[in-house]
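Fig. S4 source data, part A: sequence.
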Amino acid sequence: MNEARVAALVMAAGRGQRLGGDDPKQYRRIGGVSVLTRSLALFASHPRVDRVLAVIHDDDRARYAEATASLRLAPPVSGGTTRQESVRLGLERLAADPPDLVLIHDAARPLTPPAVVGRVIEALTASAGAIPALAVADTLKRGEDGRVTGTLPRTGLYRAQTPQGFRFPEILDAHRRFAGAELTDDAAVAEAAGISVAMVPGDEAAFKITTADDLERARRLAGETRTGTGFDVHRFGPGDHVWLCGVRVPHDRGLVGHSDADVGLHALTDAILGAIGAGDIGEHFPSSDPRWRGGASSGFLSHAAGLVAARGGRIVHVDVTVICERPKVSPHRDTMRAAIAAILAVDLNRVSVKATTTEGLGFTGRQEGIAVQAAATVIL
């Protein structure tokens, strides 16, 4: 049996006036990507979806073209004066080459996980309609003039989400029959037409952006992942130890530097600064400043971590590679990881320290110094 053909209809014709501002909410950005782009990409990249069609406002055609420049989509459909009318117009466009199943989704739910889409499609093998839903957990009150007038039982109550999925011929017929009925969602249209609608588990991430607080919540959840790299070198000089990745390692020589010359923490500091576009370690702690003479490099790394936190971000992983012949790093690796984790205030499993040699080649091979390269991943 051939697999059902699935089309996704993404509703993006609304004005989103409750959010405020000049741009409709579907064109606001989350982590540099518009809300609409994220919603369309959810379906364009889903392995079970064959076709994606957006329903938009005629005033937004230039915005839509910009938001979808990186996606391969069918030409958009102009929406109507209500959401219900806009859905029907989208379904009529699909009817020219009808799919077996259609998913109707609010563009204002940009963080819906792909697994929710899969669950809805799967439910349509046994039901003519299916929606993702979450059981109501809060106590429900009826109120009037700012006062509670009653308590409603929440047993059997659910919050409906999207995408709402249907067998195409049935939902097209239902929207034609109940055009202008001003029903609140497509499941309500299906119910009015006597179509059986199944429920599958929804997801809290699939919430709808309606207010400014919702948009901020979406930005916090989505975040923006950035990666920075760092590289540093220090030559050997007189001494009986080296500071390396926050650990005092006995050695027959020391490392030369303005501070404690911890080449590992210096490279890692640069990696974190690079991830947030905050320059390099020399800009923050210049070697010409006597305040940093002999200073602990842990303070440099802590400063970089503080800059990430000040931007509402968090460090999710760091990776340090030490390049030298001696001293041996492996006996101290776990201590180094623990020292870095403590400075950054992250879990130990988010810190990697490795070591390698250059097989006797170059200045590290001649044991003239130590080089370190580092990478840091942060979410802003």
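Fig. S4 source data, part B ends here. The longest strand covers residues 225-237.
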